[in-house]
Amino acid sequence: MATIHCFEGKPRFSCSQCSTTVALADELISKAFSGREGRGRLLHSACNIKLGAHEQRQLLTGVHTVADIFCVGCSTRLGWTYLRAFEVSQRYKEGKYLFERERIFKDNAWELDDQPSID
Ligand SMILES: [Zn+2]
């Protein structure tokens, strides 16, 4: 797949295993999504990832065609991308990326994004 250039010096999300940049923090849509292993973050775009096989998966919000995404640096599974949603109300997720919260970290020191939340 095409690699999107990630600019150095911008807040970004990185692989928690090998620190490869996998997305720009600006691309964050929501951090309250459900991943397979807990919370997930939905992003508009990603970089430095490999796609797994397409598969249909029953998610909380219905059937979706998804492909797992893997870090190019260490091949850790980071989450998945939504290729197709069958429910019209879920179509906004098509082409977006869901990262498992524990698999990535936000790579800047000044925004304390990961403090315990109050929700
Ligand atoms: Zn990695």
From TrEMBL:
Pfam families referenced in this protein's UniProt entry, alphabetically: Yippee-Mis18
Swiss-Prot/TrEMBL keywords: Metal-binding, Zinc
Protein's UniProt keywords contain Metal-binding: yes
Keyword Calcium included in the entry's annotation: no
Signal peptide annotation: none
Location of the Yippee domain: 11-108
Gene Ontology molecular function, alphabetical: metal ion binding
InterPro entries: Yippee, Yippee/Mis18/Cereblon, Yippee_fam
Family listed: Belongs to the yippee family.
Name listed for the protein in its UniProt record: Protein yippee-like
Species per Swiss-Prot/TrEMBL record: Serendipita vermifera MAFF 305830
